[in-house]
Amino acid sequence: MGSARYQVLTITRFTLLEALRTRLPWLLLATVLLAVLGSLFVKQIAITETARQQTAFLAAGLRLAAVFILGLYITSSMVREFNDKGLELLLSLDLPRAAYACGKFLGFSLIALLMAALICLPVFFLAPPPAVLLWGASLVLELWIVAALSMFCIITFTQIVPAISFVLAFYILARSITAIRLMSGSTLFDQSSLSHQVTVFLVDSMWFLLPSLNLFTQTAWLVNQNGEWRAILPIVAQSAIYTGLLVGAALFDLYRKNL
Amino acid sequence: MQQRAVSAVPKSVVWILIASLCLQLAWQSSRPRPGAYAEALVFPPDGRTLEALSLGEPIALSQLMTLYLQAFDNQPGISIPFLNLDYDRVETWLARILELDPVGQYPLLMASHIYAQVPDTPKQRKMLEFVYQQFFKDPNRRWPWLAHAAIMAKHRLNDLPLALRYAQAVKQYATAPDVPHWASQMPIFILEDMGELESAKILLGGLLVSGVVTDPHEIRFLTERLQRLEDEEKSSSVPKN
After folding, report:
1. What pairs with residue B3 in β-bridges?
2. For residue B80, which residues of chain A lie inside 8 Å, CB to CB?
3. What distance in Å separates the CA atoms of residue A56 and residue A69, rounded to the nearest whole number?
4. Residue B221 confidence (pLDDT)
5. ipTM
6. Which residue of B has its CA nearest to A204?
């Protein structure tokens, strides 16, 4: 048991080291800097509510950038490992596949945590600290889902393009599924028609299967200061359930791989 | 690459997968169905912001916005009458959608056939006025909605001067050859209802003389109508003993 934990932590450590030694921190810093400059530009051109506009632009922009960078980093890092036959080498050792996947996921989760911390720094200058902490905590939970999703996709597809396409499509759909479900339930349509019923069924099914990411990391918490720590509880639950589901799916695919 | 059999996957992994999938389904089932709330409809961003957000696809964005706005209706299980909506916001949404896709007719249909049907006269008038204002930007394409607004003003609001204003705008500005004659004849019938027989007679006579109407049945109908107007005028001018 102790050995398995050691193996997991070793892989976590090397995953983290790889991220720190590649240009990921610099890329993140550059992104934060660009977003801050962009938000200053927005502040300059806004006629009213300048602080509100700046905060909203910065927070929403950094959130999307973090999701994109993390997804791309995980897929490219793992695909390089596949191509360099590093995975085969690791698995030829006395290392359970589950330890490899868990170690990787733990490493990516820590990277997500550091990313969220870095992103929160400029936001602290624009919004009250409790609101930023709530927003940052939610961002971490959202990034953990993205990390698990990216890992699952790259293990399944083994190529960057389909994996990252799936990650982005999934993310956009998960962010908009609540609104899509709302639209599909409109009573302005003929509710008895087959096409309407099929559409509603499909949309409802997707709603059940996808995490409601629209509840996560709301900019309104920062600009309206209406966020309460109570709001984080369903987000924690959703993040735990979905991360478990995605890591489980990634493990399932990894165990089926014939190296 | 060949995959190993499912039996190669440890049971614990399969159980984790099944358990988390069941948890996800249970979690989503326990959450309330997403609902539209009247106060949730906020003002849309301004035109330039929307243009930037559309990423060069204004028509697609306008359609998405239309569907989003449309979702604020009576949802199954919950009731949000249109009456509860802030009509200043609704009007701004409709205007923005039209700005993004000026050829699209959907917002005008929603304004005249959906939002103008609420049992609230100021809100009805607001929507009809919106249709009237938007009509002038493309009269030959948007006249059906103003024609409908004229009918609404006449029959629902019982406001004949308003109906006449709309009908006259249709007659004056919707001049494309495919605009049906009944649309340009609307002011005549409204004037008739208003008791303005002389004005109605002049309009009708002018229409017949102009040669715009060529269908024999329509000419006969309008001639009979003109005749009846003249008779009514004569009978009203005869002093009663």
Report:
1. A257
2. none
3. 20
4. 74
5. 0.82
6. B33
